[in-house]
Every structure is written in structure tokens, then in C-alpha cells.
Amino acid sequence: MDIINEDEFSMNINMLNNYCLEKIFMYLSIDERFELEKVCEKWKIISQNAWHDIVTLYYGDHFHRMKNFNVDSSTVVDYIEKILTRCGKYLLSLTLTRIDDSIVLPVINKYCLKLKILKLFLTSWVNEDFTNVFDNLKKLASLDIIFHGSYNIPIDFVNSIEALGETLESFSLTDDYLETKYKFLSIEWIPIIENFKCLNSLAIIGFKMDKIFLKNICEIKTLESLTLADIIFDGEIESIDLISNIKNLKYLSIMQIEQVDDIFIEKISNNCINLEKLYLQPATHCTDFGILNLLQLKKLNTLSLKLSDEFDDVIGITDTSLRRFSNMKEFDCGGCWNITNDSIINIINHSPELEKLNIRRTSVSIETIMHAVNITKKRTNNITLNIEANTSQLPDNFFSLKIYESPFLKIKLVEL
After folding, report:
1. Architecture of the domain whose range is 57-356
2. Where is the signal peptide (predicted)?
3. Bond preceding residue 282 cis, omega within 30 of 0
4. Type and span of the H or E element at 94
5. Could you tell me which residues come within 8 angstroms of residue 10 by beta carbon, excluding any fewer than 6 positions away?
6. pTM of the model
């Protein structure tokens, strides 16, 4: 191989036209593209035009490393703005995490006019930064924002959401700051919720709400996916049966909410006939009576009854109800100690597309695993069954025994 010196290399690369150089520059990282701008005026101009390949941008850990080197938040925001001045007009999806300063929001609103998906993790904010902050984002369809701080949710953020009423299809709002979680979602949110014209996915995590707020959620006619997790309801809400009024639901996840019981499941089963995926955690107040109602849901292919507390168990759910389920794709009965081989083997037999199965902390034994091996060996659909079990449910030499091998079976063992 011939070795060329630096002068020959410079001469050769400068013989390339601007189009070729632009294509080459697109192979470089963001930081490397900025370095190119320092080489010469020609490369600076070309490099600044070589950003249209970036339509999806995720930045989080990089900012965290900057903070570890005592880079202040204003410098981080300046760096973000520098990036967005280059590629913002091309971006369709933007994720920014570990951001200390909400001043980045007006920057996004200024440069990212084509943005369809926006995910933010904010640790510090002021109300003024949220003023009309989505007015230029006319195409924004998905907004996922996590507030990680002790401050109240800014009222200007609530008001700014109204600008997205015609376009927003997915909205996720999370407060994960443990010390001041469960901030109350005030009445100011009500007209905003009523303004959603095409919202089909809503997730609210870590807040407190009242019956009026819940009622307004349940009146969103376009809603197909709802996640309510770690929610505290005020004293007047004894049940969350209003959720059964959302007729078009296909996905429902109710996590760490005490009001999940047999009556709730019965109403969901009677009214939400399009439901395909159902996650209930914990299901400690549920029994076979409630679970049997789910058999009415002919489209249901995912059911999770996994517990949030590793030390509580579901004792009211038994083989009587679970053995009757079929055509499942995901099935999670972790913590249901009264579930035995009988029901799980039956589910495996009648669910040829089963992909995920959690049998941790149940009374299921090696018999079910052996059956799964034999059944999946015969699969012709190339779908792999992933089983999560406890080490105590299998023999110590399990993975060394060839009789337990199947090309379409994977087993993950977890300590009890």
C-alpha cells in the first residue's frame, strides 16, 4: 500500500467538489463537524451545510458529562443552540435529557419547525420559558416531558399546550421527583384536555388528580391508549370506573393505583371491547371473578398482573380463570402464587404467537418449562418465546442439559 504524506492528502481532498466533501462530512460526529469549521473558510461553509442527514437527535449523556467537568448550564444551552442552528430545520425527532435550564425550550421553538416528536427531561425551569413555547411547532405530534424538580408545573406550560390541540396525537406527562411528587393537576388543565382533537395516546405519571380531571380524560373520544401510573386520587374518588367510558381503548396501563378491583375489571370488559393490551399493577384486590370477565375481550393478546411490591402476592387469582386464556402474545402473572402448571401449560398450548411469559413467584415448576421446550421446537412462525422465571423453579444444572434446548425458547432466571 502506498503511503501519501500530509501535503499530498490535502491536495487530493481539496480536489473534491463541494458536493463530495459535504457527503464525507456527514460521516462525522457532531463535535467533529464543529471542528471542521475551524480548518478553513471553504470547509466552514460546506460543513455548515452538511447537517440535513440528521433528522433524529438524542442528546443526554453528553450533557451529563459536560456537567461533570463543571460546565455550567448556560454553556450547555449555548451548545444545544449551536447544534440546532445547524440541524434544527431538518429535525423530525428530538430527545433532550438531563437539561438543567428550561431556556432551551424557546430555542427549540425557534429552530425546529418541522419537529414531530419531542422528548424532554427537565431538572430546572421557570415559568417564562414556557410562554408560547410550542407556537412554531405546527407539526408536533408527540410530546413526552418529564419534570424532575421540586417546582410546580409552570402555568405557561399548561397554556402553551393549547397550541398543539390540532396536531398532538401522543402526550406523556411525568413527575418523578420523589420528594415533591404528586403535584395536583389543577383546573387550568381542563380546557386544554377538551381542546385535543386527535389525541390517541395519553400517559400521566406521578401526579394527583380529582374526579373532574379524570372525567375529562375519559371524554377524549379519540383516545386509544391510556397510561395512569403512580397517581393519587383525592378523597372523593372511590373507584376509577369512569375509564370504562373510553370506548376506543386498545391499550390500558393502570400502575400503582389502589382502585383496581373486580368491579373495575368487569366494567372495562363490558365497555372497552377493542382492548388488546391490559397492564394492571398491582392486582392484589382482584380475584377470579374479575379476571373471568376479561374473556369477553376477543382482541386481548397482552395481560400483565405483575406486582409492584415484591413482598405482596396476588392470592385471589387462580388457575380457574387464567387457564381459559388463549391467543396471547404477552402474559405476566408474576406474584400469583396460586397459579400452577395447569393454567400456564394451557396458555402455551393455545397461544402459538406467545412471545413473553413471566412466571416468577408462582407455583409453576420445571414441568411447564419442559412443555415449552417441546411446543416451541415445533413452531414454524419463527417466533421466540421468552420466559422469565425464578432460579428456584429450575434444577441447578438446567442450562447444561440438552433436553431443555429449543431454537425458539429463551429463559431468563432471576433470584426470588
Report:
1. Alpha-Beta Horseshoe (3.80)
2. none
3. yes
4. strand 93-99
5. none
6. 0.87
